[in-house]
């Protein structure tokens, strides 16, 4: 097995430089040319890190726990890509857990955290965050980074700009001459099955804030009957068409708070005899591959989900090393309009 000392000797640098490159650390000063030489030699010699030896030496497992609401949600795919890329660069492996499977008495995550099998946790919250399994994260000793805006939480967090997403989606419809604009998708009030984490205001409410702010800025009074609560399924989008068409002055355009529901809404509108976008324009917050493949292709707001996962993981690695950081909302890149056939 190739050792760090052998790589260092081959490149003509100290072992600490090689270790810094392997761990993605920027604390050891070196030129980018040296970093590139070390990476090339690592590849050439086929070096594989001995994680077992490292864990014994550092009392760390080399594992990060990632907890997300629903792993199969395609919206999270770029976030997971960012998490995996950053974890690999930082010398960690990922253990995925689905938050919806940690409710109703599940103790799996609590057991893992309690036995020190992970060095840190990355949590993407959901409406049902108040479960014994998910809350065990906050009782653990390992550092945690929350990938959503939780201002009242003592834990550090990183978030995308959901308020801006709701605003730019609405502005896109306003620019196309619409004044009767609705908002669809997500729950706005507490449900019996959910008790949100203290200080956690779900991203759907922040998108709604952006939607209402854009209307108000345009001199349009937001209408409560234009705001429809649903779950996050395509079926909910199809069902929402019945509510929309029952309105006396129905909206001519809709901001949908998620990609999946927008697919059902467009399909339901067409089935009901509405022309899209002539009778009903639709734009979704978040983009997934399917939105560009369906007919008509659905306009969307692309959010920096890759950056959320990548930067969040890098911050988690820093927290494990004892560093601190200020919680913040990612502003660059900003939410970006993908103008397709439904607008």
UniProtKB/TrEMBL annotation:
CDD domains: HTH_LacI, PBP1_LacI_sugar_binding-like. Coiled coil: none annotated. The keyword Iron does not apply. Residues 2-58 form the HTH lacI-type domain. Signal peptide: none annotated. The keyword Transcription applies. Keywords: DNA-binding, Transcription, Transcription regulation. GO terms for molecular function: DNA binding. SUPFAM superfamilies: lambda repressor-like DNA-binding domains, Periplasmic binding protein-like I. Gene3D superfamilies: 3.40.50.2300, lambda repressor-like DNA-binding domains. This is LacI family DNA-binding transcriptional regulator. It comes from Phytohabitans kaempferiae.
């Amino acid at each position: 097995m190739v050792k760090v000392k052998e790589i260092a000797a081959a490149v003509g640098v100290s072992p600490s430089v090689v270790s810094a490159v392997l761990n993605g650390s920027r604390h050891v000063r070196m030129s980018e040319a040296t970093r590139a030489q070390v990476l090339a030699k690592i590849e050439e010699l086929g070096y594989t890190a001995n994680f077992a030896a490292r864990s014994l030496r550092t009392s760390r497992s080399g594992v990060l726990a990632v907890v997300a609401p629903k792993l199969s949600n395609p919206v999270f795919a770029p976030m997971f890509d960012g998490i995996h890329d950053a974890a690999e660069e930082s010398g960690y492996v990922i253990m995925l857990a689905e938050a919806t499977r940690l409710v109703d008495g599940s103790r799996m995550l609590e057991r893992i955290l309690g036995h020190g099998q992970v060095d840190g946790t990355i949590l993407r919250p959901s409406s049902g965050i108040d479960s014994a399994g998910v809350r065990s994260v906050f009782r653990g000793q390992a550092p945690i980074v929350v990938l959503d805006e939780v201002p009242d939480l003592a834990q550090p967090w990183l978030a995308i700009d959901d308020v801006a997403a709701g605003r730019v989606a609405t502005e896109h419809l306003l620019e196309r001459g619409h004044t009767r604009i609705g908002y669809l998708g997500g729950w706005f009030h507490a449900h019996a099955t959910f008790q949100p984490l203290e200080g956690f205001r779900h991203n759907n409410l922040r998108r709604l804030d952006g939607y209402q702010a854009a209307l108000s800025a345009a001199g349009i009074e937001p209408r409560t009957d234009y705001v429809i609560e649903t779950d996050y399924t395509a079926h909910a989008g199809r069902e929402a068409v019945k509510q929309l068409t029952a309105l006396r002055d129905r909206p001519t355009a809709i901001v949908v708070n998620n990609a999946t529901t927008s697919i059902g809404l467009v399909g339901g509108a067409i089935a009901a005899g509405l022309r899209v976008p002539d009778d009903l324009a639709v734009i979704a917050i978040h983009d997934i591959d399917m939105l560009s493949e369906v007919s008509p292709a659905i306009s969307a707001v692309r959010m920096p989900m890759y950056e959320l996962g990548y930067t969040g993981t890098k911050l988690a690695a820093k927290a494990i090393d004892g560093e601190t950081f200020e919680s913040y909302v990612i502003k660059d890149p900003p939410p970006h309009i993908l103008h397709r056939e439904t607008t």
